[in-house]
Structures are given as structure tokens and as C-alpha cells.
Write a structure and sequence with these properties.
By secondary structure, the protein is α/β, with parallel strands linked by helices. The chain contains 13 helices and 7 strands. The chain has a single domain, classed as Rossmann fold. The chain is globular and about 50 Å long. The structure holds thiamine diphosphate (TPP) and magnesium ion. The site of thiamine diphosphate has 14 residues, from β4. Magnesium ion (MG) binds next to β4.
Length: 318
């Protein structure tokens, strides 16, 4: 049974993720926003041990970094390509940056490949005879690539301590799941001999419960799991995409089940928070974001000395 204290920190993590997403959206024309999908991002990372490996989906990577303990300022500096970023501003992108030198993979632009990194990290944990778990999050579009099948087959055969989480927002750029995805992603778990969990991707507690169940399974040496966290991309593929190819009605109905509203309504109904508490959690997170953006904007860009490879490796960058 999760304590109310833990549930409230999960709530704060969810709001912090939303405020950070909104902060980046306010100035970034090509941000691949995870607004509306934070329950998968936060619920899929919350409660892991520091020595567990976490490999993010590119959409939501910043928020996942926060959950893993990264500095908000340094993450925003990464988006702006400033020298104070985790990678010292060498590759500016919204999805770079890491919490610590260990156990948080950065992203490449070649999607799908990270699913195999998840199997690889889990194989490493097993070969080193640890009880570490590797968690990898990827989109529904990525789940239709060869790497998904290779990674799940390997993990299934070798009973690797991996948790595969599909951030299923039902879109792959402009292609809807009806056009691009055969069957239900969760059902693919059977083919690879692992449990499949269908989670409500707009309910952070449901996603987190699925994560913790899958992690316990993996830690006990029972092998991998696949979590299909069903949500919806309520924004364009990136900030300035009007997403005219989406049905407005569909979008509206998912917006009514916004993950923040879902959790706030539950916490209020249980008497755990008041409207005033909610307001102050949002205000606190929003002012943290404003300060992080202001600080990162005034930071310097990397100088030519950053081109020296030995500095890059010393900084833990690539
Ligand atoms: C190997 C590869 N193919 C194509 C792309 C172009 N691309 C960028 S984002 C994206 C959509 C991915 O869809 P999904 O996995 O569902 O993630 P989402 O954007 O919905 O979060 C594509 C196809 C890419 N980056 N890498
Ligand atoms: Mg998608």
C-alpha cells in the first residue's frame, strides 16, 4: 500500500513535469511536447532505485530526467545549448541531458534503437549478477520497428530484468494508430513469453503501479514485462504543428481526462488536498521553471575550448 506521503510526492512530480513542459513550449517552436502524457513519463520512472537504468522516450525525456533527480536549470540549459548543461551545450536539443553520469541514457534521433539498449542494459545487470533493472520507454511508432521485436525476443529468451514501457499516444507524427499499428501492443507480450500489462496512461498511479509490479517481477529474477500505457497526443507532433489530421472531438475527450485533473480530482475526493494546496503546488513548480529558464538564458554558450574531446569525456558527455 503506497503511503499518502508518497502519493503526494508523485503528484508534485507530475505537476513539475507539466510546468516544465509548458515552460519549454513558451519559447521553443519545435519542442516535442509530452503535455497530456506526463502520467506515463512520471509514473514510468517514479520509485526506481538510483542504480536502475532508465532509458527515456524522446518525448518526455526532460520530465523523466527531473524525476531521476536532474537539476531543472541544467536541463533547460541543455535545451538552449548553454555551457551549464549536462553535456556542456555541445549538442543542443530538448531531449539531451542526464541526471547523473550513470544510469540515464541520453537520446539519439534514430528512434527505436533505444529499445535494444534496454535489453542490453538488462543483460549487463544479469551478467554482473546484480538485481538492477533496466526500464526503457518508447512510442507506439517505435513499437512497430524491428528493434522492438529483437529486444523483446532477447529479453524473453534470456529472462532479462527489463521493463518495456510503450508511451502509446496513438500517433506516429501524422499517422494514427488505426493506420499504423496492427492489434494491441500489449498483446505482443504473449509472443515473447512475458507478462503484458495494459495501463491507463492518463492515470499516473495506474502507470506507477504497473511499473512497480514489473520491476518487482524483474528483480525477483522472473524476467521482463511489457507495459502498454494508453494515452493520447493532445498536441501537435511538435509545438508549431496544428495537427489538422486529428479529430478535434477525440482530442477534446482525452483533454477531459487530463492526467493532472484525474489525479487532482482523486486526491481532492479523498480529502488529501484542497484547491489551495493544488494552487500552491502549481505556483511553486511554475516559479521554479521561470527561474530555471531565466538563469539558463543568461548562461554563456560553450566556447571553442569545448571542442577538446578530453573535456567532453571528463564532463561525462559524448
Ligand atoms: C529511425 C527513425 N525513423 C524515423 C524518424 C522520424 N521520426 C521522428 S519522431 C517520429 C514519430 C515517432 O512516433 P512514436 O514512436 O509514436 O513517438 P511519439 O512521437 O508519438 O512520441 C518519427 C517517425 C526517426 N527519428 N528515426
Ligand atoms: Mg506515438
Amino acid at each position: 500500500m503506497t503511503s499518502n506521503e508518497t502519493r503526494l510526492s508523485l503528484y508534485r512530480a507530475l505537476v513539475r513535469a507539466r510546468e516544465l513542459e509548458n515552460g519549454i513550449i513558451s519559447f521553443h517552436p519545435y519542442f516535442h511536447s509530452a503535455v497530456g502524457e506526463e502520467a506515463v513519463v512520471v509514473g514510468g520512472a517514479f520509485g526506481l532505485r538510483p542504480d536502475d537504468v532508465y532509458i527515456p522516450h524522446y518525448r518526455g525525456a526532460l520530465a523523466a530526467n527531473l524525476v531521476r533527480g536532474a537539476s531543472m536549470h541544467r536541463l533547460v540549459a541543455g535545451v538552449l545549448g548553454k555551457v551549464t548543461a549536462y553535456d556542456r551545450g555541445r549538442f543542443f536539443s530538448e531531449v539531451r541531458g542526464r541526471a547523473e553520469p550513470k544510469n540515464f541514457s541520453t537520446m539519439g534521433g534514430f528512434l527505436g534503437t533505444t529499445i535494444t539498449y534496454g535489453a542490453g542494459a538488462a543483460l549487463s545487470a544479469k551478467l554482473r549478477k546484480t538485481d538492477e533493472v533496466a526500464v526503457v520507454v518508447f512510442g507506439d511508432g517505435c513499437a512497430n520497428k524491428g528493434e522492438f521485436h529483437e529486444a523483446l525476443n532477447l529479453a524473453g529468451v534470456l529472462k532479462l530484468p527489463a521493463v518495456f514501457i510503450c508511451q502509446n499516444n496513438q500517433y506516429c507524427i501524422s499517422m494514427s494508430a488505426e493506420r499504423g499499428t496492427a492489434g494491441r501492443i500489449v498483446d505482443r507480450a504473449i509472443g515473447y513469453g512475458m507478462p503484458g500489462i495494459q495501463a491507463d496512461g492518463n492515470d499516473v498511479e495506474a502507470v506507477n503501479a504497473a511499473l512497480l509490479q514489473a520491476v518487482a517481477h524483474a528483480r525477483a529474477g522472473k524476467g521482463p514485462s511489457l507495459i502498454d500505457a494508453l494515452t493520447y497526443r493532445v498536441s501537435g507532433h511538435w509545438t508549431t504543428d496544428p495537427a489538422a489530421y486529428q479529430s478535434q472531438e477525440n482530442r477534446r475527450s482525452w483533454l477531459e481526462r487530463d492526467p493532472i485533473l484525474v489525479f487532482e480530482n482523486r486526491l481532492k475526493a479523498e480529502g488529501l488536498v484542497t484547491d489551495d494546496d493544488i494552487k500552491s503546488v502549481h505556483e511553486e513548480a511554475a516559479s521554479e521553471v521561470t527561474a530555471a529558464i531565466a538563469q539558463a538564458k543568461s548562461d554563456p554558450p560553450p566556447g571553442p575550448e569545448e571542442l577538446r574531446p578530453e573535456l567532453v569525456y571528463a564532463a561525462g558527455g559524448r
